[in-house]
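User: I'm putting together a teaching handout on how multi-component assemblies are represented. Below are the sequence lines for each component of a complex, exactly as they appear in our records. Could you produce the 3D structure of the whole assembly as structure tokens, so the students can see both representations side by side? Please keep the chain order the same as the input.
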Amino acid sequence: MRNIRMIISYDGTSYNGFQSQPNGNTIQDRLEHALSRLTGEPVKIIGSGRTDAGVHARKQVVNFSTSSRIPTEKWTKALNSLLPEDILAVYADEVPEYFHARKCAKMKTYRYTIRNSCYPDIFRRHFEYHHYTPLDHAAMRRALAYLVGTHDFTSLCSARSTQESHVRTLFRAELTAVPIMDDPIREGTLITIDLTGNGFLYNMVRIIVGTLIQIGEGKRTSESMGLILAGKDRSLAGPTAMAHGLTLWDIKYDEIGDIT
Amino acid sequence: MRNIRMIISYDGTSYNGFQSQPNGNTIQDRLEHALSRLTGEPVKIIGSGRTDAGVHARKQVVNFSTSSRIPTEKWTKALNSLLPEDILAVYADEVPEYFHARKCAKMKTYRYTIRNSCYPDIFRRHFEYHHYTPLDHAAMRRALAYLVGTHDFTSLCSARSTQESHVRTLFRAELTAVPIMDDPIREGTLITIDLTGNGFLYNMVRIIVGTLIQIGEGKRTSESMGLILAGKDRSLAGPTAMAHGLTLWDIKYDEIGDIT
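Assistant: Of course. Below is the structure of the complete assembly, with chains in the same order as your input.
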């Protein structure tokens, strides 16, 4: 059997998240259905991780076993012809048998985008969270600094998390704020929050962002982020930010070289 | 009666164009319906110009007469609460009675966006035309230079145009090509073609772009653009480019000062 690895991009707007579930309509369902049609055999894919309903992926990585002889360079085009227009395969290669999209992932980056302005951007409305009142970027940056390093993120993940350990390492937590120039009324700021870590817990990025927005609004201090983390209690943190502002941005693999 | 002017942005994907028509489902219909509900009186709007089915607007300008006393600063928020999420009012002011969104427009800019790469951008798929094979930017730029100035654009507008005169002035015709860096596989070029003129004929931008793409592919020479223009015959030009790559980008008004 061959082990095929692919980079998949998707607009998560219309889906119930990445992972297969009883209600159906997931990215995984669509990919497996298209791959099974393409190869003529049942295909089960392994994703680098789940994304929630409405969350997008610029770079999701999957792998699967197949006996198909389709040459590596033909996979993406053939698969895209069978996928809906909001899911796209952009890269494929054949990898050693031991490669596992989730277990071998060394680093993941999620990006959360906030349009902090009077009006949403109509062309980006499914990919940016629109926040009306001004946010204090400096306070948000100070709060993010508390998160870098190895911590127990119990306070900043869903109480429904079933993971044994909530200890994760964040390598980078960065906020970028750029004045909006493309808009017809040139007003406001586009804020992107990039979190890079060795793994993320259920709703972790969205709860971090929901808390960060309250800090940006002055409802909490920057220092509160340290206390929230130390308290190991979900109820200490802010709300879960809306799904549509979140994108799985990048994944790095060590062993077999980075993909791009 | 007050004369209210507004800037409207819209994602044209789901509509049969700007202007009201028997089949319905146009931007104008939605705006008039929402404005009539808001003011409690029938409202007829005047747009700066039509856009075809699937064409977008970053900045469309409309005006309308109303006896409503809603204060200027309340119009956009009130209207947006009644509009679908793909139509957005971003500015409103009260203008002198003589202001007419179409007749007073001095300059319009349309932008056509081509993603010249292996894969479309899944997040921009409704707003960019995806072209697979490489395009010769220098040849396309040379061809655009033929269009600047005052010309009879009969060859470059729909044969169904009912305008008396096809003479229009283009002030600017510019192609920008930027390497794609945001994509997971960082490949290809994003091409934007900006055309600024005193007026545009039916399908004019799309026929210019359709011809330009053939020039970029090497199927026609740059110099052919001059001959096409001189021939005053639609059949000399290339095909009409896809609607979804086109956006009404900007409109300038002289008399009462520019809006933004």
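A couple of points students might notice: Residues 105-251 of chain B form a domain with the Alpha-Beta Plaits fold (CATH 3.30.70.660). Chain B is about 20% helix and 30% strand.
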